[in-house]
């Protein structure tokens, strides 16, 4: 072997080592990025827990009409909602009952609270003495603005009388006296906004897609909602006391339609509150490129932490040390917001910070100037 050959061999082996190092480095990067992706996925695929509560059951039949009981209709619909939602891997379902059994109102809320659920949806049917009322309505917890709402709540709450020691269990609450309902609105305020958001989706779906009569989103004092520590609604699908609505409610087809619209509303709600990734949204929106993105055309994001009727000082000591806090008035509610930025990513991190401090119901909101806009709209203003 002459010197030239030796040199050639050495160069070749150096090259091989070099190549091996490169391969190793490359493999390492691949492993890292897979691991990283996995972490990101694990984070964004945190399960969204939904309690679906079939009202009544067992000895408590609920209302009835034309030979059918509320407890049976609502169980059928709840099981169908469950079947639809089960197709979504990022949703965890929690039932309060899956068969014909008696469960107290408190117990239902406890099931949701123990599971640390993100949402509580209670399904019921209406029934009155007269045949004429019909249509669907969705309730959130609060002060009933009129007698009708109070009557629905009284009727649904009356089932506690079937529970043992109900006076003791519900702190002397008498479901039949209006006085018991005073002060009801003080609870659940933290989640009122989100509860109304879901209630709106449900009523919109029923009205637009099923052409049901819309009796609206309403507030009343329901015991089952009062005890839950999460956004919660109570859906009255329709009136069993109305002949044609009764036919719809007990039919397989009617129940499938209702279940489809309820589950779609839950998905809409989940998407509105738990945005998976900025990229997905941007990809799905018709992005206008070359758009003027100087600051005045850029949306501002905030974390909304509390909505309440009480006006309190917007300072960090009132909000578990979070800073900065700002306050806006919308309708008769004061909304307290944490942080402020044109960057959605920055606000997403701030959202986690707020949740860590115990504001479990916090979510992101966006404004363009003084105008509140959707997150989708706001993200479009971020594109350069
Ligand atoms: Zn009911």
Mass-distribution shape = globular
Order of helices and strands: HEEEHEHEEHHHEHEHHHEEEHEEH
Separation of the first and last Cα atoms: 63 Å
What's the architecture of the largest domain, going by CATH? 3-Layer(aba) Sandwich
CATH class placement of the largest domain: Alpha Beta
How many structurally independent domains?
2
As residue ranges, the low-confidence spans are 38-44, 276-293
**Strand arrangement in the largest pleated sheet:** 4-1-5-8-6-7
| Helix share, percent | 40-55%
Note the total helix count: 12
Q: How many strands appear in the DSSP assignment?
A: 13
**Average predicted confidence as pLDDT:** 83
Q: CATH superfamily name of the largest domain? A: Zn-dependent exopeptidases
CATH topology of the largest domain: Aminopeptidase
**Ligand set:** zinc ion
Radius of gyration: 27 Å
Estimate what percentage of residues fall within beta strands: 15-25%
Which class best fits the helix and strand makeup? Answer: alpha/beta
Give an overview of the whole structure:
- The protein is α/β, with parallel strands linked by helices.
- The protein has two domains: 48-273, Aminopeptidase (3-Layer(aba) Sandwich); 278-380, Sporulation related repeat (Alpha-Beta Plaits).
- Helices cover 42% and strands 20% of the residues.
- The chain contains twelve helices and 13 strands.
- It has a six-stranded mixed β-sheet with strand order 4-1-5-8-6-7, with helices on both faces.
- A hairpin with a 2-residue loop joins strand 2 and strand 3 (68-69).
- Helix 2 packs across helix 9 (252-273) and helix 6 (192-210) crosses helix 9.
- The longest helix has 42 residues, at 3-44.
- Mean pLDDT is 83; it is low at 38-44 and 276-293.
